UniProtKB/TrEMBL annotation:
It comes from Massilia terrae. Coiled coil: none annotated. Residues 172-244 form the WYL domain. It holds the Pfam family WYL. This is WYL domain-containing protein.
Amino acid sequence: MGEKGKQASEQTLARRIALLDRLPVGHTPAAGRTVGELTGFLNASGFDCGRRTVERDLEAIDAVGSVWRTIGVDLQQGLDEDDGRVPRWSHTANSKALLFRTLSNEDALLLSLVEQELKFFMPASAYESLMHYLKVSNRVLSLHANQRQFRDRVRVIADGPALRPPELNMPHLHEINEALLNGEQLELGYRTARSSAETAYRLHPVGLVKQGLFFYLLAVKEENTHKRAPGPVQTFRIDRIRRVARRLQEPVARGLPSLEAALGNGQLQFFDKGPVGLRLRFADTAEGMALCDSYRETPMAADQRIVKRTDGSLELQATVMYSLQLVRMLQAEAHRSYVVEPTALKEEIMEFVRQAASLHLRPTPP
């Protein structure tokens, strides 16, 4: 091919990529672009072409067996709603040729936020694919100061003090996510907070979750899978994992509980003692009333109700899980509310208050 022929081919390729970039993803065919609109855009972008050239480009791209179709370009035509004789062109909703469409500012921002929040839940293969798009995303955002500033102005803030989360080993997370993706078992080396010794486990993963500052792997140990109903599901904090490896081609046991079922059974509520009928009364103070209002807006349970008693005090009644999380929450609110029932929970909170008072009233050494 001569130099002129090469230049003409490159010009045609560049024009068709620009054309594809201009076409919207049409969930309805009538939402596309007309040949006239596309011709005007291409000429404004430096391509000297007429309507017939644009028509030929669209026909070539959409032709059965064209190279464009083999890489995922899938075009559709719809008729203009006002003039039923005018066709409009767009990508179909499931078109996968994303690399031939320039990211909009909003697309680039979305990818950036996804990378920030969801990278921990991606298998390595998915994260590598995302990284290719992030290069384009970052380039687009670098050209638009407002979009870049918006990304820097969005945060997820913890409920409590700004504690520094433990460092996460990303290769460990990727290996766990690959096992979840492929339904494979895991070999784990794990160390608890109070031990320097490493314990080896063979696990059947159920899911990966983030709660507060920590990520947890939920899984069933190998020795607990040889039952009609495998279980129980146990938790392993990701930052305490010292080594992890997939058992390639070794599927997890059948009948494992779902992640939803494990969470529904209070798996991450710690030392769960089962459901109880909670009766909680609020202090007759501004702080007590503020706490009551907070529970009205964010109920503890679906059956929660707040009733006014004959003495004018307010009482919350709800069926809740008796767990370490519940105890800690009530301990933190002991100056604004007090437990009436169940008796065991009331006594646990009272003992906490006694110990706290004893500690804080102890004379300070000189």
